[in-house]
């Protein structure tokens, strides 16, 4: 643990620290960012909260707020105190700019040092930073954290995969930091070069910046002979370093001394109980350059209840598996396709590949989940297939609290693609009004 | 015991035809076909001249396929033929999951196919004087291509 005084602090001490820091950041944004002043005034809330519960009535911040404030409108520190800017990729619209003061950069280095230590990293390690260096937060974020930890830091950035493999071998890389899909490419390229990555001293990978599945994790771990750790962050909140998995590989510890996490129902905007899925909302408690208040990430996750054996007391969020844009409302119940995937992963006899088909039966929405039968099924057993179908239906009903018809489909018949698979087929408009 | 090809069929139009066409294109001859269906899917059971090749070709086209061991017995083509066979099995406590029959052109006896969950089935039938077919009687012993 890099900062046990924070990472393992008691929940009571943490709550006091959070409240103190929350009051400070609310005051700073109210005084320095016209947009927040207006939002708070419109909502009739005062920055001088006296409890974390008071905070639940504060207005949310969304990506559009940041776009409309482009480039510097949401900075809470004077521009002369800003020492660096990063920018989001802008794949879904206009780019956004985030600014960091020297204090922000220092905190960020600590948080990323925690992240690397969370993956088992120590000053004895050699960290190959294959995330892109530049406006993207990934490269420099990991870089400063690795130096802060005291590890040897290889600032190789992305691209030139053969060179990545060569450097990995020659420099004795023990921790690889890149996107999970690039990790797979590195492993395959090494094979093409006649090298088995498993023979190298690699021990951990810190992977993030794109959605990935447990299957992909297992594949990477098998091919590379390392422990694959999921890390989470977004430039609007910080960049990498917001949350990271420990070696338990069961959820990502949120750095709660710096970030307040809430999970809300994206329709009602009310908080959901711990354990229930919903939209992740972050408030930065210490950021100076560009703090955000109740920033709606559109990422879907849930709090994993319980105490982690690793000793960290920060709560864990589940790996982000979807976006709120994918949410379905089925007979009044919010359903995230990623929940269906989780159910399927726990049922033997089916593959975790599925499609949700929405159609009309009369005036009612009809929902059917198409699920692939595992290829090694005994297809002669009609009764067992029927039982399997009913079991999948029952598991989905119990996990999602909604009854959905299940249709078994042939092995490998549903299109494969990582991340952006077309999971929902909506036939309701095509059918017209019935 | 002989090999039967069991094919999972999603409930969608033309799917059985697609299965048959896949076998035809591979020059595989079906001797018998039995389709069991539920509301949502079907399972086609096929006796053919090259079961391993059939499995490989069907899987190549995306079908879910299993090879199932079944008992094939010669059944006299006369009234009471089936009843005799079933009573023989029942008397020994052998449970039959499903059964179907086909007649080879020009043959005097039918071939009865039984799916049983009991290793003793073939021995029970042979002990009763019935002819139990071995694979070579019904199809080529093929390799899976």
Description:
- The complex is a heterodimer of chains A (434) and B (145).
- By secondary structure, chain A is of the alpha/beta class.
- Chain A folds into two domains: 4-324, ANL, N-terminal domain (Rossmann fold), CATH 3.40.50.12780; 328-431, GMP Synthetase, Chain A, domain 3.
- Helix content of chain A is 32%, strand content 24%.
- Chain A has twelve helices and 21 strands.
- Chain A has helices spanning 4-7, 11-32, 34-43, 63-68, 102-118, 137-149, 161-170, 180-192, 214-224, 337-345, 382-400, 428-431; strands at 82-87, 97-101, 126-129, 152-154, 175-178, 204-207, 227-234, 239-245, 252-254, 259-264, 278-284, 295-301, 303-304, 316-317, 322-323, 328-330, 333-335, 350-361, 364-373, 405-409, 424-426.
- In chain A, the strands form five sheets. Chain A has a nine-stranded mixed β-sheet with strand order 4-3-5-6-7-8-9-14-13.
- In chain A, helix 5 (102-118) packs across helix 6 (137-149).
- The longest helix of chain A has 22 residues, at 11-32.
- Chain B is an alpha+beta fold.
- Chain B folds into two domains: 2-68, VC0802-like (2-Layer Sandwich); 70-134, VC0802-like, CATH 3.30.2130.10.
- Chain B is 30% helix and 37% strand.
- Chain B has helices at 15-25, 51-60, 81-91, 121-127, 135-138; strands spanning 2-10, 30-37, 41-48, 64-76, 96-103, 109-116.
- Chain B has a six-stranded antiparallel β-sheet with strand order 2-3-1-4-6-5.
- The two termini of chain B are 22 Å apart.
- In chain B, 31% of the residues are buried.
- The model of chain B has no long low-confidence stretch (mean pLDDT 89).
- Classes of the chains: A alpha/beta (434), B alpha+beta (145).
- The A-B interface holds A 373, 375, 377-380, 382, 385-386, 389, 407-413 and B 4, 6-8, 10-11, 36, 38, 40-41, 43, 45, 62-66, 68, 115.
């Amino acid at each position: 643990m890099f900062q046990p005084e924070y990472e393992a602090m008691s929940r009571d001490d943490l709550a006091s620290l959070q409240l103190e820091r929350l009051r400070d950041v609310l005051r700073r944004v109210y005084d320095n960012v016209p947009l927040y002043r207006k939002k708070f005034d419109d909502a009739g809330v005062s920055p001088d909260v006296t409890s974390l519960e008071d905070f639940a009535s504060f207005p949310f911040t969304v990506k559009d707020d940041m776009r409309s404030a482009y480039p510097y409108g949401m900075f809470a520190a004077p521009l002369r105190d800003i020492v660096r800017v990063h920018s989001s990729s802008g794949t879904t619209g206009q780019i956004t700019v985030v600014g960091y003061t020297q204090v922000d950069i220092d905190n960020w280095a600590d948080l990323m040092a925690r992240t690397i230590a969370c993956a088992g990293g120590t000053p004895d390690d050699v960290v190959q930073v294959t995330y892109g260096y530049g406006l993207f937060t990934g490269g420099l974020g990991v870089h400063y954290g690795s130096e802060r930890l005291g590890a040897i830091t290889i600032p190789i950035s992305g691209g030139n995969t053969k060179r990545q493999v060569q450097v990995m071998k020659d420099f004795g890389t023990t921790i690889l930091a890149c996107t999970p899909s690039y990790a797979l490419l590195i492993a395959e390229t090494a094979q093409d070069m006649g090298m088995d990555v498993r023979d190298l001293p690699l021990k951990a990978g810190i992977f993030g910046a794109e959605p990935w599945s447990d299957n992909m994790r297992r594949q990477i771990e098998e091919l590379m002979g390392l422990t694959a750790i999921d890390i989470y962050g977004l430039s609007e909140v910080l960049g990498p370093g917001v949350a990271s998995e420990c070696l338990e590989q069961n959820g990502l510890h949120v750095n709660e001394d710096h970030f307040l996490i809430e999970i809300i129902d994206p329709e009602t905007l009310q908080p959901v109980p711990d354990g229930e899925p919903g939209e992740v909302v972050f408030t930065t408690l210490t950021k100076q350059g560009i703090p955000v208040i109740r920033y709606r990430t559109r990422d879907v996750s849930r709090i994993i209840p319980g105490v982690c054996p690793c000793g960290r007391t920060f709560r864990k969020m589940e790996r982000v598996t979807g976006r709120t844009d994918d949410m379905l409302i089925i007979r009044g119940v919010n359903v995230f396709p990623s929940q269906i995937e989780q159910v399927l992963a726990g049922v033997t006899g089916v593959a975790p590949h599925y499609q949700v088909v929405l159609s009309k039966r009369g005036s009612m929405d009809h929902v059917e989940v198409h699920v692939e039968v595992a290829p090694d099924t005994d297809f002669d057993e009609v009764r067992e297939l029927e039982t399997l179908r009913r079991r999948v239906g029952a598991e989905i009903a119990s996990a999602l609290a909604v009854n959905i018809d299940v249709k078994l489909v042939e092995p490998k018949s549903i299109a494969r693609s990582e991340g952006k698979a077309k999971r929902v087929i909506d036939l309701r408009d095509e059918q017209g009004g019935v | 015991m002989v090999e039967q090809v069991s094919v999972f069929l999603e409930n969608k139009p033309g799917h059985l035809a697609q299965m048959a066409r896949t076998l035809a294109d591979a020059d595989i001859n079906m001797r018998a076909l039995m389709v069991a269906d539920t509301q949502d899917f079907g399972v086609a059971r096929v006796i053919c001249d090259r079961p391993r090749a059939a499995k490989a070709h069907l899987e190549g086209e995306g079908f879910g396929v299993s090879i199932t061991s079944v008992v094939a017995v010669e059944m006299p083509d006369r009234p009471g033929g089936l009843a005799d066979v079933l009573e023989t099995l029942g008397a020994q406590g052998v449970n039959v999951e499903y059964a179907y029959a086909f007649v080879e052109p020009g043959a005097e006896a039918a071939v009865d196919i039984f799916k049983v969950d009991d290793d003793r089935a073939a021995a029970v039938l042979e002990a009763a004087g019935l002819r139990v077919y071995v694979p070579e009687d019904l199809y080529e012993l093929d390799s899976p291509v």
